[in-house]
Amino acid sequence: MAIMQGAQLFRDTNGEVAQLHGIGVQRFGDRWYAYGEIKNNGNLFQGVACYSTTDFVTWRNEGTVLEVGEDGSITGPERIIERPKVMRCPQTGKYVMYLHVDGKGDYAYAHIGTAISDAPTGPFEFLNTMQFRGYESRDIGVFQDEDGVGYILSEDRPHGTHIYRLSDDYLSIVEDVICLRGTNYWAGYESPILIKKDGVYYWFGSCLTGWDCNDNMFATATDLHGPWSDFTPFTPEGSHTYQSQCDIIVPLDGADQWHAGRFLYIGDRWNPDDLGNSPLVTLPIDIDDRRAVLQWRDSWDNTL
Ligand code: DGJ
């Protein structure tokens, strides 16, 4: 049995709250590796934590895989750095971490950061920050397609949310595949997620309401360039996504990650006064035939 709560704190095998805020998850081999913002002490950068699991119930603490840089550096302790996401580059075999790197206690810098490692558990070496054609980049997400091509999603307030195609080594951006504002919404969606099931792409995101929750949205397409459907909610309107902000949707089964039958939704239920103890909303999400539905459950069995 792998009983999960609808909302819960993940704890490691020592009983400590897993610092997996703004969580990203990838399966490498027979384990899932989760990366998150360490938020024990407010919102400034405290490093990136990694934990691994086989069932999303028992979590092995793999340590701090990207350390805080020196005072004054781009990854220093006065910076805001959020939403670590990792992919393994098929061409180089390296693990590449993407981060939302922002300013000294503010959100003025708005770049994408990259870091690299030979192993999913790090240590990751910080490389640099980038913007594509000067576009702002705050919340990010990542996606690897069936052909091995990597993509990064990036929220750019003046224009919308982009899907960028990465270079073969995953270290630079080579194409602005599409940039969309939300449906009847002034901006692109934050906390972007892209998954694929049976040839259909599903793009999820949240509205921009700071630490407050809102009705998150999704759209579908069969080509990343579009056309994309309208964005619509995947939880009952007004539920504010069961008081969560989407982080990641994890394919759990199937022949590969593009043909899964079961998916796990994970979102932050931010507690702005105590970010390090913000619970996660963890629910099965039904995805099929261009529909996505997230239903509330107090608890459920995630046995695979
Ligand atoms: C919403 C973003 O999704 C979070 O990662 C964080 O930056 C908060 N805004 C800060 O208000």
TrEMBL record:
SUPFAM superfamilies: Arabinanase/levansucrase/invertase. Gene3D superfamilies: Glycosyl hydrolase domain, family 43. Pfam families: Glyco_hydro_43. InterPro entries: Glyco_hydro_43, Glyco_hydro_beta-prop_sf. Keywords: Glycosidase, Hydrolase. One of its GO terms (biological process) is carbohydrate metabolic process. GO terms for molecular function: hydrolase activity, hydrolyzing O-glycosyl compounds. Belongs to the glycosyl hydrolase 43 family. This is Glycosyl hydrolase family 43. It comes from Bifidobacterium longum subsp. longum.
